[in-house]
Inverse folding.
């Protein structure tokens, strides 16, 4: 739609010139007109004739209201008449209002009577736009009244909206059904509402100086959507500038960080217990094949490598400089690193913004910008990239190569990632600490890991985003190809308080993060352990080719709990067709339950498991399997694990690659069986019916967002 | 309040006699009058004078409505006038309505005009009572309109309600704030609403034949609560009879089941792999000190014990007979058991109601009733009671004595309980299978474990309740003394479908279960693993003496996630007073954050942990501690674990017994450290910030319900 941008530009300039930030009602109306935002027709009448002709123009019924600077309480003054349905009634009403006003206050200056189109009864909704510190312009939608104010039933999206995004907002509130018509009401005009959302989003996108738009209430009915009240505010200051880099620039530095030919360790040390010693040893012990240059003015050799007094003394090129010196020495060393032309500095030291020392951090950022050095950190544990056998960290080396890249904003969470990875033998491509994020951050990592063939899944712990728009742009692209899991800490009011004491970051409202991360195709993990479990299981699970999930269980009790978990995770239990039901029944005892869950009952031999699982894999109408195992002497845990591993492996060899997960109930042998299954491509868990379904649910959420599930 | 029960009795008898189950509006009004349920005053007027005097009696304003069997669309006929505020207006209105009606339909028979009290504008709410298959009479409350119909924002309680329960309903809906007055509205008269709920609950409690009451809508305002529409239905049939036992009867049999002097095994066998062999060996190997009598007509001795041809041949008294024979032999053997006077039979065999063979189950129940034998099962794994060293099960023995009793309706879940207990070394007093619950069930177990000094916590997996009222009665009593954790399977629509295919049990609506279990003081576990984790941690945690929770963390990142978890679990982060803040600051680096979380920062030595934890334990204003550990070389995991164990132990020795939980982030050594801490009274978990807070939250939920937290 063609908006009249010129008139809005002129109007905003005029408002700016007058020094105001709040627009008047007529100014709001002018902007609404320019952007096709429907508001009630209105006109000022100074005679009964004028009132009648205005009313005839806008259509009956109308509302009449006294206009007088001296009458604040119009209703009290008898200055409001509603629902006037004909020319005669409007004429009489005009005279009556004027008479009432004079009777109420003889001295009042009377400008006239406002004639206003009366809105058809409809559903009250709220449409707004605001400027989020993380994401910039965002659009909000909710139902009016109690639902928004008490239940906070509201949804957010980045502006501008495309048509699909605008339409999706109508379905993203809890009370979405109301818009479809309940209690005998007609459904609202969804196109009109979605169109209104789009127009508001375009307005704030076109004019970033508009900090806030409130259409509240909007009356939505079967015949359209009309904004009964409009409030527009302009920003007081200018939006902050965020440095922007091109994809090529990001990839160029990230390639050198992750696949360096040479690494210098500034502050390398021979002294056990020193960070500069740990980093050196991890680089050496981790098997990094490139050059390792220790830098230390007081040593000739460190970990059997020649040491250099300063980075400038290193003869060859240096791709990465890892800093392991105290904060106060960083600026000087960073100048040398910059002079040497090193593209990236890994700043392990703490003592910057996280301790309140913002100036020190600003200083190093300025030095880095001057020299074109990109920074990771400060205040981090370093990073791992297993395809390069690179452990540029003071933690212990990690060498189980695999396809998941994990990042964390906090060192503690990084250590939890490391321990969990080691104990579960999770295959990892990278673990990266971001700490204070003075420069490189999650969107840079997304850009790199998105195109990194060694990485099939990305899991990120974060407390804030420096540039929400850059993150969303990267996540949108990457999540079409591989799952992006995010643990957003500071979700709650209590959590957000801790976040601001920790990093000084302004934690945004969680609902905004939640909606916009989903809009970006990100899978959100509700907690730390969930993020780790998703990261471990998602790369193992193939992408489901449809929504039909079947539970095959030997324990009816587990079947019920697995079904509960399916509902919790938005999975659809397949409605089993009669022929398939009959096929399952051929393999299970007469008192077993076919249907879904398929309950093969508890005392069955391996052959029953094998036959039913094989059936589930082979039938193309079934898209995913959830297995419920119950420990018996007839089919012990490892027998079950081996047969499932074999049957699934055979199916994959035949080109049938469906997600299969398992819940194992039994004595402690089920732990070993679960490990075996995981190693054979079946995420399996002992003593829980929730986890296998949660990871399958996460895979589905990703696949749906990425548009990978055929309809 | 004194209700007029006699008039209701007479009215219901009259309705019954007429063969109806639906009450007419005047009958509904009569019942409302008898129970003090306010409905709008109304009267029939056949003259303008009568209309005026009725209106004067009920108070202005009033509504007038034509009463004519020939006029269905009263409004269309000009037969309704609202808001008539004076005698004159009512008089004129009467005449007008009659005139309008005659003009509308000259032939219409006109009975007169109904004068109705006009309700003040108020909040629409819904109050109802219904008959739940599990819980019997229950009362429902919700806000009218969209909130109930679309968002299902409704809450339930058992009838009858006491005043506190009735009041609690007003706070148990999501939109509770609406009743307190939002958007300028006055708060509603809470006493009037709660009183109305109580009266409805008393009505259905007094007259069980009333199957349903609907007051919809009720207009609640600052001046009262008036039911604008009343619908009352009577039950078609008679409620089913559930056998009732006294507490003494239950305890008498449960004592003999759990602490038997002698156990007979019907179907004992020497053949490895047979259930009758497993049970014998578990009894013997488990160390049961009483008599063990194998019963098998074909053997002289089993597991080195003299075998008997039938139970009748056993010389001494037998407390428990464990059945390990196929279903078809159970009735005959049960007759013999009954004749022998054995008080309890443990029916391991399957092949009864769970396979559709309801008749077989009815048969054994009848035999048992005839002889006064109580039944556990059929279709179970048996049971464990560790204080008696009793493993009457075909699973493996379990011998880690402790204070939690667990029960499960399903064998698979029972095996998960066993494996989890063994791997976590969870101290257990009992594990009991209930299976088909033909007789003994969860409320019998609650009665026994409630008074069992060996049991401090009870955790139950269940899919249905045979007698919801008996369960609630037992749970209410027991949960005042010890936590009762329930995993209710079949929570969701999908889950409920699986439940009915599994046990034939009618899974009730989950919201009813949820509200009523909470009303009974039960802690509900969201999933299997949660139930197990609660069961393990709750007996270890002391009861908190107040709501002030403090997080002490070495990793700011964990602090944020722990704070998120506190909000998720309804825990209150203490607002730290200035003097306490200063005291914490004395021990932590200047860039650490006091406040709450107390962030001691990552590089601190054991002394900092010790000083801050000691401060948290010693200050009486702090009631619970959550510790966030981050693996460093300065304070390695086991150093942390030992110091926390020591400091907490010393405090307990000094009489300071506060709940302390811990989240450990780090390399795999944190697993051993977590185990150590758990063994030393501090529930601790690696790689998760959620679990420690979840178990603390469960302890708080219990303690609040039990009234154990001082205000």
């Amino acid at each position: 739609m063609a908006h009249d941008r010129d008139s809005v530009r002129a109007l905003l300039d005029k408002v700016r010139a007058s020094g105001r930030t709040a627009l008047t009602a007529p100014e709001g109306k002018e902007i609404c007109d320019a952007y096709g935002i429907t508001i009630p027709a209105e006109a000022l009448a100074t005679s009964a004739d004028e009132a009648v002709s205005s009313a005839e123009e806008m259509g009956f019924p109308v509302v009449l209201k006294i206009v007088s600077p001296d009458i604040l309480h119009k209703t009290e003054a008898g200055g409001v008449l509603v629902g006037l349905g004909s020319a005669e009634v409007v004429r009489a009403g005009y005279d009556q209002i004027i008479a009432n006003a004079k009777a109420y206050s003889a001295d009042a200056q009377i400008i006239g009577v406002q004639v206003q189109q009366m809105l058809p009864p409809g559903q009250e909704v709220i449409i707004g736009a605001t400027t989020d510190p993380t994401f910039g312009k965002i659009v909000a939608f909710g139902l009016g009244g109690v639902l928004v104010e008490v239940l906070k039933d509201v949804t957010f999206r980045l502006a501008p909206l495309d048509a699909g995004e605008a339409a999706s907002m109508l379905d993203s509130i809890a009370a979405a059904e109301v818009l479809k018509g309940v209690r005998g009401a007609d459904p609202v005009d969804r196109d009109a509402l979605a169109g209104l959302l789009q127009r508001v989003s375009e307005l704030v996108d076109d004019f970033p100086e508009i900090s806030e738009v409130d259409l509240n209430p909007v009356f939505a009915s079967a015949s359209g959507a009309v904004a009964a009240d409009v409030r527009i505010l302009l920003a007081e200051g200018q939006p902050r500038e965020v440095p922007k880099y091109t994809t090529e620039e990001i990839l160029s530095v990230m390639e050198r960080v992750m696949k360096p030919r040479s690494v210098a360790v500034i502050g390398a040390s021979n002294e056990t217990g020193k960070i500069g010693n740990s980093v050196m040893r991890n680089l050496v012990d981790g098997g990094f094949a490139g050059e390792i240059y220790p830098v230390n003015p007081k040593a000739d050799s460190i970990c059997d490598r020649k040491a250099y007094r300063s980075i400038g003394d290193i003869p060859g090129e240096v791709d990465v400089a890892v800093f392991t010196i105290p904060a106060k020495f960083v600026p000087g060393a960073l100048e040398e690193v910059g002079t040497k032309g090193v593209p990236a500095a890994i700043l392990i030291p703490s003592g910057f913004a996280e301790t309140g020392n913002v100036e020190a951090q600003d200083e190093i950022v300025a030095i880095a910008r001057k020299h074109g050095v990109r920074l990771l950190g400060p205040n981090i544990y370093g990073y791992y990239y297993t395809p390069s056998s690179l452990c540029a960290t003071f933690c212990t080396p990690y060498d189980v190569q695999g396809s998941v890249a994990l990042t964390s904003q906090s060192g503690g969470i990084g250590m939890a990632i490391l321990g969990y990875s080691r104990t579960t033998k999770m295959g990892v491509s990278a673990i990266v600490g971001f700490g204070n994020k003075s420069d490189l951050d999650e969107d840079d990592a997304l850009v790199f890991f998105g195109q990194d063939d060694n990485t099939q899944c990305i899991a990120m712990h974060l407390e804030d985003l420096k540039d929400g728009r850059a993150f969303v742009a990267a996540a949108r692209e990457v999540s079409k190809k591989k799952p992006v899991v995010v643990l957003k800490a500071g979700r709650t009011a209590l959590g957000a308080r801790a976040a601001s004491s920790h990093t000084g970051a302004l934690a945004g409202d969680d609902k905004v993060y939640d909606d916009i991360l989903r809009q970006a195709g990100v899978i959100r993990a509700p907690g730390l352990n969930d993020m780790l479990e998703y990261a471990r299981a998602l790369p193992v699970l193939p992408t489901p080719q449809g929504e039909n999930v079947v539970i095959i269980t030997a324990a009816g009790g587990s079947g019920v709990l697995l079904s509960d978990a399916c509902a919790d995770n938005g999975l659809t239990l397949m409605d089993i067709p009669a022929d398939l039901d009959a096929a399952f029944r051929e393999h299970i005892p007469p008192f077993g339950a076919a249907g879904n869950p398929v309950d093969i009952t508890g005392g069955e031999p391996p052959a029953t498991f094998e036959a039913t699982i094989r059936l589930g894999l082979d039938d193309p109408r079934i898209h995913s399997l959830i297995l419920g195992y119950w420990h018996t002497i007839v089919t012990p845990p490892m027998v079950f694990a081996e047969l499932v591993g074999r049957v699934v492996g055979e199916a994959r060899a035949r080109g049938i690659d469906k997600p299969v997960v398992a819940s194992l109930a039994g004595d402690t042998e089920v732990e070993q069986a679960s490990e075996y299954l995981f190693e054979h491509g079946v995420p399996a868990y002992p003593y829980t019916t929730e986890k296998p379904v949660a990871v399958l649910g996460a895979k589905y959420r990703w696949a749906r967002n990425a548009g990978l599930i055929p309809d």
Notes: Residues 87-104 of chain A form the longest helix (18 residues). The CA atoms of residues 320 and 373 of chain A lie 10 Å apart. The first strand of chain A starts at residue 42 and ends at 45.
